[in-house]
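User: Need the bound-state model for fe (ii) ion:
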Amino acid sequence: MLVKNSWYIAAYSNEIKRELFARTLVGEPVLMYRKLDGSIAAIADRCSHRRVSLSRGKLIDDRVQCTYHGLEFNHAGECVRIPGQDAIPQRACIRSYPVAEKDGFVWLWPGDASLAADHPVPDYFMRSSPRYEGKTFFTPVKGDYLLAIENLLDLTHLPHVHPQAFEADISNFHPKVKVEENLITATRTLSDVPNLPMYIPAMGIDRVDRIQVATFAPGGNLRVDSIIRPVGSDDLSKALTVYIFVQVTPETDTTHFAYTGLYRDFALGNPALTDKLHEEFIEVVLQDTSIIEHQQRNHEQDGSDVKVIDILVDHASLAARRIVRRMYEQEQAQAAPAALQKKALAILTPEQAAAGTRLQ
Ligand code: FES
Ligand SMILES: [Fe+2]
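Assistant: Bound-state model below.
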């Protein structure tokens, strides 16, 4: 269920240079490069002539030249040169995608380009604000991105999958789950629980009160914000905040890319601590990756019609699946008439199509 009408992270900003960068994103073969003016172009990584990947070609100024017969395309996907002929048919043009750069990420809108401007690019302020420190980690995962969404919205897996990092069993602290249109919030309030082992050296306290807010917004924005306070303290000035995010970008139906970050608002100016937390966090991320890839293999081996059970803690992840399914079905319903119309136009002569003729 690939939802296309959403912003997804396509790459880190510093990965897109004056060279061709190809990646499959949300089922689309995409080619990106930085133009002479510094902005980013994203076009289909397919030549309209014989489907050769344009990423095998070369960048000439702001144009991409296909490696096979030399057709050239600009940043908007327009074919601007066909060797040996002057006329360039409209059909030679390929797709281009809306892109944006924010917080050190390149964001891509793989769906209906006319809708992109109405949707704000997600905010990962902790990456660009000096009030926070942390690092982001990139992982290609051989698993459906919905499994990653489920993983982060059900945090009762923490003591089982990550016993070294999360000792407390939180399964008896039931979250309050709120679903507002396309936003899910699951809030857990934990009182007098052990502090997480990775934070104890920086915070100097063993037991804490912790408010943990997990959120999901499509396409793949997942966050867990933790507000941590000394036990019994109402003094918010003593509260510390940790932001964990997992931004998932589906590659195909069965693979995705995860951008995972851990950022804090305390013990700033301490790069050694940042590195240590990052290393411990990577271990946690790889444990999640391992279980997601294992699930994917079992799903593929067993088939999709095998029934599974749902339990109380699945409330938020089931709501997320419903949101994704609803968006997916809406997109499919909208795409169907457009595909039919395209088919009808395809069997008209070019003159009839240009005159707006429709088949009865
Ligand atoms: S396949 Fe690209 S120019 Fe022929
Ligand atoms: Fe996890």
